[in-house]
Specification:
This protein has about 350 residues and is an alpha/beta fold. It is built from 13 helices and twelve strands. Strand 1, helix 1 and strand 2 form a beta-alpha-beta unit. Helix 1 packs across helix 10, helix 8 packs parallel to helix 9 and helix 11 packs across helix 13. The structure holds NADP nicotinamide-adenine-dinucleotide phosphate.
């Protein structure tokens, strides 16, 4: 029997190519993983009637750990994002997105080492929405007017932004515990509490209550999200661990990914009390599907996070070291890295050749 069984969801678009590369690299370290393949994505709609079959959820519930490629969310198709659904179904309330500098990426910033902890289950991603013109939207608009809560134009679509004490408490506590366990010194809570008094205001109040428990062990501060974005690009050294409600976390983590070289190298993890689902920050990049072009580094770094979670730290560090070497050498790199370093994609290698180069340096 294998030491670990992990659910592997290849996803769609570039997902199958980058997860194949990831699997080859992880297997080359000798870590004993039995991969249980499970499917998710729009291509299942016809055969199974859902993009996220119960069998996939059950596989994760059984194995506790999953790693996935990206899954396309067709615009206007009516079905909710598989990724959002997974996070809600398994109560994966933390989205961990580290952003750190690697050599040879041509990134505008060096020496970045930031941890983004994004709340993953509420805020504008809660999925409580009312379509423009629907009787429900009409009722809600009337309710707000009747209660003196404010006038909403009658032709509005409405998305609610629920933020709870429970949701805020657990994500901020998780960020603080992560900071302590990983030798970090500062946690910054990010919000727009000056405008959104009852949602972000609650997040901020709870954040400070949690932060107070860590007094003397961690520095705790807050930033308004817009000032935080400017601060990040001007003085990133002022930040360490950031904890944010869902939407700001999504946006700020992409800013941080851009600072260290782009989406092709940004890893992520969705973590709850029982389950962990590892996935890169980027999407399915449909235009590169099947072309053996996509950069698998983000998926490989995602596997590094997974291996650390499985306490396979030696294999994790070997993969990270090999990626550093390949990127620093700058020859066997994918189109995106070549383009940013030389202004042209000439001489780049494909997804699988890049994985070969990483394997050679393990
Ligand atoms: P995207 O798939 O992340 O791609 C946007 C651009 O980022 C690509 O065109 C490419 O830029 C670059 N990029 C992304 N991944 C890369 C990689 N591995 N290697 C090199 N370059 C990479 O974003 P999108 O086009 O907005 O979204 C496509 C679909 O993915 C949507 O349906 C979206 O809903 C879904 N999505 C899924 C997840 C997930 O499964 N967790 C997350 C985000 C989005 P260049 O063309 O400039 O090289």
């Amino acid at each position: 029997m294998s030491k670990h069984t992990v659910t592997l969801i290849p996803g769609d678009g570039i997902g199958p190519e980058i997860t194949t590369a990831m699997r080859r690299v992880v297997e080359a370290t000798g870590v004993d993983i039995n991969w249980e393949i499970a499917e998710a994505g729009a291509h299942l709609m016809e055969s199974v009637g859902t993009p996220l079959p119960e069998s996939t959820l059950n596989s994760i519930r059984k194995n506790k750990v999953a790693i996935k490629g990206p899954v396309t969310t067709p615009v206007g198709s009516g079905f909710r994002s598989v990724n959002v659904q997974l996070r809600k179904e398994l109560d994966l309330f933390v989205n961990l997105r580290p952003a750190f500098s690697l050599p040879g990426t041509g990134a505008r910033y060096q020496d970045i080492d930031l941890i983004i902890v994004r709340e993953n289950t509420e805020d504008l991603y809660a999925g409580v929405e009312f379509e423009e013109g629907s009787p429900e939207a009409h009722d809600l608009i009337k309710f707000c007017a009747d209660k003196g809560a404010g006038a909403i134009r009658s032709d509005s679509g409405i998305s609610l932004k629920p933020i709870s004490i429970t949701g805020s408490e657990r994500v901020v506590a998780w960020a603080c515990e992560y900071a302590l366990a990983n030798g970090r010194s500062k946690v910054t809570a990010v919000h727009k509490a000056n405008i959104l008094k009852y949602s972000d205001g609650l997040f901020l109040k709870v954040a400070y209550e949690v932060g107070a428990r860590y007094e003397g062990r961690l520095e705790f501060e807050d930033r308004i999200v817009d000032a935080c974005c400017m601060g990040l690009v001007m003085r990133p050294e002022e930040f360490d661990v950031l904890v944010l409600p869902n939407l700001y976390g999504d946006i700020v983590s992409d800013i941080c990914a851009g600072m260290v070289g782009g989406l092709g190298i940004a890893p992520g993890a969705n973590i709850g009390t029982e389950y962990a689902v590892f996935e890169p920050v980027h999407g399915s990049a449909p235009k590169y599907e099947g072309k053996n072009m996509a950069n698998p580094t983000a998926e490989l770094l995602t596997a590094v996070l997974m291996l650390r979670h499985l306490q396979e730290t030696e294999a994790a560090e070997r993969i990270l070291g090999a990626i550093r070497e390949v990127l620093a050498e700058g020859t066997a790199v994918t189109y995106d890295i070549k383009r940013v370093n030389t202004g042209s994609t000439d001489g780049c290698v494909g997804t699988s050749q890049y994985a070969d180069a990483v394997i050679e340096r393990l």
